[in-house]
Structures are given as structure tokens and as C-alpha cells.
Amino acid sequence: MEWDIVRFNDLDTYTLYALLQLRVDVFVVEQNCPYPELDDKDLNPETRHIMLKKAGKILAYARILPPDVSFAGAPGVGRVCVAQTARRLGLGEVLVAKAIATAKEGWPGLDIHISAQCYLQRFYESMGFVSASEPYLEDDIPHLKMILTVNHLPEQS
């Protein structure tokens, strides 16, 4: 198993197929939520795709969006998912930690935003995010805006 962090233009067609298959399996089929999965945000040259692959299958995936794509002035983490066969192995925590590190590296000093499904609020709080909104519906699923405040430490001289 190996973790990869790539941009859209670096995805081969098999990997692209596998990540879209996982996203559709989780967000459209499992959650019975018909919505347009292909939203053009993947095409942004600064978007990062984090995935754990094993034997050509993607077990865990997240998308890190640059500032101003989903959230004004802030990078965003989204499409966080783990394949059914790989759940309860702690991959979600590792995946989100990698997503946070990638966002911090790509956009230092900027807080990280997510639109989290409400049932995952405690999970994201355990990763350092805090709720920044009342629940709202996104594709008929209750969500919360959550923010991870990045420490703004003074530079040492």
C-alpha cells in the first residue's frame, strides 16, 4: 500500500477511474444522493488528490482545493472517503492528517475549511476542526462548515 499526492494532470486514466469510482460508490450510491460528482474542481491545476492505493484499488481518498475554489480565501478539504472494505482500520484519521499537512504546505498560514456531514462532526473535532456554522443542507444531507485554525506563530530570527 502506498499514499500518493498528485495533481489532476499527473493522474493516469486508471487512477482517475478508480478515484471517481470510489467517490461515486460512497457519495452517490451508499448515501443515495444523486448529484453531479464531476464539478470541475478536480481540474484546477492547484487541486491535490490524496489517495491510498492497493493493487490498483483506492482504499482512501481526499481532495484538497486551493483558496477561493470552495471557500473564500481559504483552502478546503473535501470528498473525504474510505472504501467500505477498508473502514474501521484508522485510515480516515491518517487520510485527514495527510490532507491537513498538504493544505498547510501548499497554503502556509491559511486556515483550512471543510463542509462536513453533521454525523462526522466529532471525528473532525478530534482532528482539530471547530464548527463555524449552524447545520445546513447540501445535496439534502445535513452539513456544518468547520474550520481548522492554523497556528500563526511569529517567525524566529
Description:
With 157 residues, the chain is an alpha+beta fold. The chain has a single domain, classed as Gcn5-related N-acetyltransferase (GNAT) (Aminopeptidase). Helix content is 25%, strand content 30%. It is built from 3 helices and 8 strands, in the order βαβββαβαβββ. Strands 1, 2, 3, 4, 5, 6, 7 and 8 form an 8-stranded mixed sheet that branches. The N and C termini lie far apart (41 Å).
Short description:
The chain is α+β, with helices and mostly antiparallel strands. The protein has a single domain, classed as 3-Layer(aba) Sandwich (Aminopeptidase).
Instruction: Give the biggest beta sheet.
Output: 8 strands, mixed
Q: Count the beta strands.
A: 8
Helix/sheet category? alpha+beta
- Into which percent range does the helicity of residues fall? 25-40%
What's the average pLDDT? 91
Query: Based on CA inertia axes, which overall geometry fits?
Result: globular
Query: What is the number of helices?
Result: 3
Name the CATH superfamily classification: Gcn5-related N-acetyltransferase (GNAT)
- Stated plainly, the CATH topology is called Aminopeptidase
Weakly predicted, low-confidence segments? none
Text of the CATH class: Alpha Beta
Number of domains: 1
Order of helices and strands: EHEEEHEHEEE
**What's the architecture, going by CATH?**
3-Layer(aba) Sandwich
Gyration radius over CA: 15 Å
What percentage of the residues does DSSP assign to strands (E)?
25-35%
End-to-end C-alpha gap: 41 Å
